[in-house]
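hi support,

uploading two proteins for the ticket. first:
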Amino acid sequence: MYAAGIIFTGMQKKNIGIIGAGPSGLTAAYLLAKAGLQVTIFEADPEYVGGISRTEHYKGYLFDIGGHRFFSKSSEVENFWTEILGNDMLDRPRSSRIYYNKHFFSYPLIAIEALKKLGIIESALCVMSYIRAKIFPVKNPVNFEDWVVNNFGKRLFNIFFKTYTEKVWGVSCKEISADWAAQRIKGLSLSSAIKNALVKSAKNENKDKLIKTLIDTFRYPKYGPGMMWEVCAEKCKQMGVQLLMNQSVSGISLSGEEWSVKTDAGKNFDGFNYILSSAAMGQLVPFISPALPVPALEAAKQLKYRDFITVILILKDKNKFNDNWIYIHDPSVKVGRIQNYKSWSPYMVPDASMACYGLEYFCFEGDGLWTGSNESLIELGKKEIEQIGLAMGTDITDGYVVRQKKAYPVYDHFYTENVETIKKALLQYKGLYLMGRNGMHKYNNQDHSMMTAMLAAKNIIAGEELYDLWKVNQDAEYHESGERGTQEGGRMVPEKLGL
């Protein structure tokens, strides 16, 4: 499937340094090591690999950080997952709902249910609002609100998009770029949602035609997404990859054609021909030597990130809900989304009589939520889960808190210009690849992150720039000059690569 054998630069084997042991970092490491190259990974976390796709544990309970469905339109990515975990990948039903105005709405939409719960008058007003948006759309929408209103109408925007989106980002929907809506709700409109509700797609339908937002099933590792990356990390080490945990990178330097890496501990690692980084773009750029031009350094300072907290509640299982997660569109509570880890995989809860919920609170590092004590956050979670009606406080036996920095790169109105400025400046730094969600400042899924890593690995193995990582779209497909290149089994296969 991938090129094998030791590749040499002159008489020296290629040596690659990778910053971050998340999905992109470990994917690249695995493929490069499989090809016989020398790889060192620098991971800041002292214990976990997988980045935001890790699985944390507490008293035998396992929990995902954000919820990760394993589904991709790329057969290359799907094949990678199968190669790593094989039969430990479960087939799981997708189930999610929206909580609005003290009602739970199935998501994707079930038309009759929505009609009943919204009421005839509100439903009619929503339809008229949608028709009006189709007749009088906002021309060239630049913000999230205008994009969604064009596709769903103003009333449905206010009901099913506004509150949750503003919880996620902490700003008005008018301050969020339309790029985020076009990326995350790709292909979805009121008409497509209704069509999906009325006529379910055949199970054997081509994945290229599916709207990711509306998928019915997905794969999931038996013991959570972190299992994928823990096993991948072990396979990497067996092939000779050096995985350095608790090693935060504080600088990378290019001298001639070789890179060196400096860590917070003051250690220096030299002799890298390539550096692959999934570190946050805004964090990495100031660490690069020779320094980037001033406009690029200033652009890096302008990049913003959204953080979040997961409050884990362990409780007696009263079968209050069986969804993977529920979106909370209720402004009277701070929680934005609630996970039910047992519905992702029953193996994540060690006692069948118990359940484990994850309440997600979106925030900025350093704000009131972020700096709150674990005890106060657990109490907030208990109060809000009872207010929503998904549990009684007396059923909750324990709690735990996870804080996740830089969970989401922010798509404000200036992010595109800032990223482009940095990209142009980095063209002068031979052998440096940015990949993954934060590395490229793209709010993507892990299959996209993995595909950027796969293409970086192919470039390095081939010894030439065959792929531009920035041309991977959100479905983990490579687009050359806006057109699909030659495909074989769902992956790019240029003749000159010989893979």
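and the second one:
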Amino acid sequence: MSISTLTDKGQTTVPQEIRQALGVAPRQRLVWEVRKDGSAIVRPVPSVMELAGSLKSDVTFSSIGAETEAATAAWASESINPKQR
């Protein structure tokens, strides 16, 4: 069992063995859930990079180069032939 102390500012240090067990790093966010019985559950909030690729989609995306070329072409055509408003 690990013990930590709550400071006057409401802060505590997560003991090293708990940080290792949760696999958390400095400045990583934690979510706290208080149960009806007074106990609390603490879970690490996954980073955006950990979530990358976790959602499946049928939409195909072109490459960054293709998007850049398309944007450049659209911008060039607008600057050469501006639309009348």
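thanks. also noticed: The chain has a mean pLDDT of 84.
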